[in-house]
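Lab notebook page, bench 4
Experiment: in silico fold of construct C2
Operator: M.H.
Input chain length: 110 residues
Purpose: comparison with the prior construct
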Amino acid sequence: MRETLADILSEVGTTPRLVQNYECLKLVADIIRFVLTLFVHEQFSDFRLLYTILDSSSLIYYLGSKKRKIYLHQSLFDHGIWSDISNWRECIQYTMKFKVDDAIRRRKRK
């Protein structure tokens, strides 16, 4: 399930994405909050998924009243996982290692 969610969220890419229905945005937020809660209770973190959640939540939004953007991250910011410093540190270390390994692989291909 986690891999599938990471794959779906990674398809957002690097451009902001508009969600047409606010209920849909809330449903996605509820699913992500559930997964984040599993991270806390299981004391297991899938850093690829955590990074993908962080990245995509700042890109997915709904256009509310008065054309004000409501971002997905606004529904996630109060989750307890963000107060755990070790998650941040490990996620940053994982992401940096992934980026370095990817750069090395690309150099070897050239």
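Observations: The helical segments are 2-10, 22-42, 47-57, 85-109. Strands lie at 17-19, 60-63, 69-71.
Next step: discuss at group meeting.
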